């Protein structure tokens, strides 16, 4: 059983390239489908209009550990989509959080 202290909880903020809001959502649909295979759970996913500099999408994840997160980040199915990602995602901020 995984120790709660080893879990990694993350928040991801995503901004779309101009006019690529639907493309960002479609890309995220693809890559987030891989998360469970790597010991992760997408806890919440929310969309915004991106007005006033706000992100277009906010995601919360939980991974069982660093090895699982690293496996997700290095998954060849995910990395094969780098060109698509660069076309639709303007900016990403990923940071650890504590869930309340």
Strand neighbour order, sheet with most strands:
2-3-1-4
Structural class: alpha+beta
Based on the structure, what is the oligomeric state of the protein chains?
Answer: single chain
Task: Give the overall shape.
Answer: globular
The rounded distance between the terminal residues' Cα atoms is: 22 Å
Strand content: 25-35%
The number of distinct β-strands equals: 4
- Overall average residue pLDDT: 95
Main sheet summary: 4 strands, antiparallel
Report the total helices: 4
Helix content: 25-40%
The topology string of helices and strands comes to EHEEHHHE
Description:
The protein is an alpha+beta fold. Helices cover 32% and strands 32% of the residues. The protein has four helices and four strands, in the order βαββαααβ. Strands 2-3-1-4 form a four-stranded antiparallel beta sheet. The longest helix is centred in the first third of the chain and has 12 residues, at 21-32. The chain is globular. It starts with 7 loop residues before the first strand and ends with a strand. The mean pLDDT is 95.
Highlighted features:
100 residues, alpha+beta, 32% helix
In short:
With 100 residues, the protein is α+β, with helices and mostly antiparallel strands. The chain has helices spanning 21-32, 66-74, 76-79, 82-88, and strands at residues 8-16, 40-47, 57-63, 89-96.
Strand and helix map with partners:
Blueprint: E1 8-16, H1 21-32, E2 40-47, E3 57-63, H2 66-74, H3 76-79, H4 82-88, E4 89-96
Antiparallel strand pairs: 1-3, 1-4, 2-3
């Amino acid at each position: 059983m995984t120790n709660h202290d080893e879990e990694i909880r993350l928040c991801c903020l995503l901004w779309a390239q101009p006019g690529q809001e639907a493309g960002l959502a479609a890309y995220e649909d693809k890559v987030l489908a891989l998360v469970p295979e790597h010991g992760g759970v997408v806890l919440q996913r929310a969309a915004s209009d991106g007005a006033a500099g706000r992100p277009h999408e906010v995601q919360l994840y939980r991974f069982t550990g660093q090895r699982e997160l690293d496996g997700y980040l290095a998954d060849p199915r995910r990395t094969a989509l780098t060109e698509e990602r660069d076309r639709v995602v303007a900016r990403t901020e990923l940071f650890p959080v504590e869930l309340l």
